[in-house]
Amino acid sequence: MWRLSCPTCGAEELWVVAGSFSSRIPLAPDGFAFCDAKFVDTEDELVECGACAARFPLAALDGTWLQHHKASEAHAAAAELASRHGDAAAAKALYAQAAEAEETALAFIEPDQTRTLGVTVISAVALRCKAGQFELAESLAVRWLRSKRLPGFAADQLRVLLRSTGSGETEGSVGGCEPAR
Ligand SMILES: [Zn+2]
């Protein structure tokens, strides 16, 4: 089963817009048509949101919040380990993977799970910061603040994070722009 809401804006207006296909279609002088195909298989499908125009792989709509959140936690734990061993580059790459998994997890949150949504958005933004991806952190935070779907505590923490992305940029240190507790 696929989630039918946009991971970015929540709209239920998703279109499969690209992908590669394998098939068996008779070739005619004027070309070929999918309706004449014996079968059609597709892979690497790309989905576009009709509301916000965000594009993402169809695979990002498969699974559960917990599955993607767990994957994010595993990447973040590996990143912390790499950071402790002084491998800042590996740590940043792993934090970026953790952030991507957390952003994917956002797509699987039901509209009434606002607390989970808030926590997951904060986590994704904080992970982008730790990955040194301050522009991505900022655009993600701004997008969700504009969405008006976040609970108050999450909006407050995001604003704190946003302020610290400005100062953290020059240092670029792993572990920068932590949310205020
Ligand atoms: Zn959208």
**Integer tally of domains:** 2
Q: SSE order in H/E notation? A: EEEHHHHH
Total strands: 3
Low-confidence stretches: 167-176
Helix-and-strand structural type = alpha+beta
User: What is the approximate shape?
Assistant: elongated
The largest pleated sheet is described as: 3 strands, antiparallel
The helicity comes to 40-55%
Strands of the biggest beta sheet: in what spatial order?
Answer: 1-2-3
Number of helices: 5
Quote the beta fraction.
Answer: 5-15%
This entry's quaternary arrangement is single chain
What is the gyration radius calculated from CA atoms? 20 Å
Straight-line N-to-C gap: 37 Å
**Mean pLDDT over all positions:** 88
What ligands can be seen in this structure?
A: zinc ion
Which tags fit this structure?
181 residues; alpha+beta; 2 domains; 3-stranded antiparallel sheet; binds zinc ion
Write up what this structure looks like.
- With 181 residues, the protein is α+β, with helices and mostly antiparallel strands.
- It folds into two domains: 14-59, no CATH class; 63-171.
- 49% of the residues lie in helices and 13% in strands.
- The chain has five helices and three strands, in the order E-E-E-H-H-H-H-H.
- It has helices at residues 65-84, 88-105, 114-130, 134-147, 152-171, and strands at residues 14-23, 40-49, 55-57.
- It has a three-stranded antiparallel sheet with strand order 1-2-3, with no helix packed on it.
- Helix 4 (134-147) packs antiparallel against helix 5 (152-171).
- It is elongated, with a radius of gyration of 20 Å.
- The structure holds zinc ion.
